[in-house]
Amino acid sequence: MKSLFTAMLSIMGLSIMNFIFIMIGFFIMIILLPFILAYFIGVPIMILSPIILIILGVVNGFSTIGDAEFFESIKGLIMGAVLALAGYFIGEFFIKLFIRYLRWNMSMVGEKKLL
Predict the structure, then answer these.
(1) Could you tell me the CA-to-CA distances from 114 to 15, 18, 55, 57, 105 in Å, in that order?
(2) In this structure, are residues 76 and 46 in contact, taking their beta carbons and an 8 Å threshold?
């Protein structure tokens, strides 16, 4: 009976700790939501900026496109590619961190054996 009580207390403590971690993560996500949305909208537009420039050249005539617009579209392509690559590695890091946290949770629950 004592081991059952100890196991129940450890699971309740772990649940409270998980709730606190989830709430902290939720509030951080709410605060960062405008930046995340800007990232998901801006990066594809930056990567597609040379195609957008070609479409504008077809519609308005290529004589309206100057050197500045050409270099700005190349700069947008490079910055978009770098930001996409950075986003990929940041996402991969957080997925690995989440998996480690889940494994740690499972090991904490699994260590208490009921007799």
Answers:
(1) 18, 22, 68, 72, 17
(2) yes
Ranges under pLDDT 50 in the chain: 113-115
**Are 108 and 11 in contact, with CB atoms under 8 Å apart?**
no
Sequence-separated (6 or more) residues with CB below 8 Å from residue 3: 112, 113, 114, 115
Own/partner pairs, 50-55, CB within 8 angstroms, 24+ separation? 50/74, 50/76, 50/77
**pLDDT in the model for residue 1:** 64
Phi then psi dihedrals of residue 66, to 5 deg: -100, 180
Which tokens in the block code for residue 5?
Answer: 């009580």
Q: Rounded to a whole number, what is the distance in angstroms from the first to the last CA of the chain? A: 8
Q: What is the DSSP letter of 64?
A: G
- pLDDT on residue 16: 85
Cβ 3 vs Cβ 115: under 8 Å:
yes
Q: What is the pTM of this model?
A: 0.71
